[in-house]
Amino acid sequence: MTATQPAPPLSPDISVKPLRKRPARRKPFFVELWQTAVGKKWIMAITGVMLMGFVFAHAVGNMKMYLGEADFNHYSEFLREILVPILPRTIFLWLLRLGLIAAFVFHIWAAASLTAMNRKANTPYVSRRDYIAANFAARTMRWTGVIVLLFLIWHLADLTWGLKPIATDEWTRGLAFENVTESLQRVGVAIFYVIANIALGIHLFHGSWSLFQSLGLNNPRFNKARRYFATGFAVLVAGINISFPIMIQAGVVGG
Predict the structure, then answer these.
(1) Alpha carbon separation from 41 to 8, 38, 56, 119, 165 (Å, rounded)
(2) How far apart are CA 2 and CA 130, in angstroms?
């Protein structure tokens, strides 16, 4: 009778892979949302609402110009004194500016990202009828956005920073009425101001119309109301802004 030999131990097969892979670590929700076209459109819509509020308040506030030099300069000083003495002078104004800068950055970033995604998708208009269906404001959205951005930089250099030769030689910090009227008395600057605000109006029209769709609030029953709102808002803001160089050139303001 022979003794049975113990079986040799089995060596592990290192080539065998586990049946289930460890799930990849998920990115934060907002990062994943940002990487989608829907997320980018949401960011454009939310920052667009913020910027729409700013341009509306800015246009209405600047109408103080029609009340005269004292009222306009008083309004300008009021903006620097908001929440004083809770906050030091101009702090609230700078917080507002920083918020607007952030909104501008995210708005432009989302727009550039969506443009790159659209080009990568390479989906041109199928027919001339489709091209016409996408209205002029929608087709020129990128260009009007660039014009508005360039105008914003010029506007700040001219009236806020007083950079020469963009600003006039008479520019004086704190004298808002004099700075505006002296600047817009230059014919070339007045023409540029009008063109830029026409571009702003076109941009606002399509932005006001499309933000509802981006946020999922695009029930066809409200399309007529959306169009009325987009048209009225764009005409109101652009019309107020365009009136300033025209009235100054005509001598009605600052004459």
Answers:
(1) 65, 5, 22, 16, 38
(2) 91
Helices 141-155 and 91-121: angle between axes, nearest 10 degrees: 150
CATH number, domain at 136?
1.20.1300
Domain count, the chain: 1
- pTM here is 0.82
Instruction: Give per-residue pLDDT as tens, 211-236.
Output: 888 877 777 888 888 889 999 999 99
Alpha-carbon span 173 to 160, nearest angstrom: 8
Handedness of CA 232, 200, 116, 102 (dihedral sign): negative
User: For residue 45, what are the domain limits?
Assistant: 37-249
Tell me which DSSP letter residue 186 carries: S
At CA 174, angle to CA 172 and CA 175, rounded to 5? 65
